[in-house]
Amino acid sequence: MLAVTALEAAGLQQGSYKLLVSHRKLLDGALEAAEVLPDARLTVMRALDKLDRLGAAGVRALLGPGSS
After folding, report:
1. pLDDT in tens, 10-45
2. Which long-range contacts (CB under 8 A, 24 or more apart) does 4-10 make?
3. pLDDT of residue 55
4. What are the CA-CA distances from residue 30 to residues 16, 23, 38, 59 (Å)?
5. Would you give the DSSP letter of residue 14?
6. List of residues 6+ apart from 59 with CB closer than 8 A
7. What is the CA radius of gyration of the chain?
8. What span, in angstroms and rounded, lies between the C-alpha atoms of 19 and 7?
9. At what angle are helices 38-48 and 24-33 packed, to 10 degrees?
10. Are 52 and 34 in contact (CB under 8 A)?
11. What is the DSSP letter of 23?
12. Angstrom distance (rounded) from CA 32 to CA 28
């Protein structure tokens, strides 16, 4: 909320920006809540780190059947 407040106070209109949050502990908590096994969480995080480069289909391929 602090970042959004600051951006809008600087004159940016709501919806004219995208705020991306990347925090490993937050993601680890989400993976834990989704009951992803601890040994697989690092694999998931590494795949998600490649999202910008590979796109969603590429990340799905990394995490899909037959991947390890």
Report:
1. 999 999 999 888 888 999 999 999 999 998 999 999
2. none
3. 94
4. 27, 11, 12, 17
5. T
6. 47, 48, 50, 51
7. 16
8. 10
9. 130
10. no
11. -
12. 6
- Choose among 7, 52, 49, 26: nearest CA to 63: 49
Q: Who's near 28: CB < 8 A, 6+ residues apart? A: 41, 45
Determine contact, residues 61/51, Cβ cutoff 8 Å.
Answer: no
Q: Cβ of 41: how many Cβ atoms within 10 Å?
A: 17
Query: Strand, helix or coil at 61?
Result: helix
Task: Pick the closest to residue 57 from 45, 43, 47 (CA basis).
Answer: 47
Residue 21, token pair as written in the block: 């949050």
Per-residue tokens: 4: 């959004």
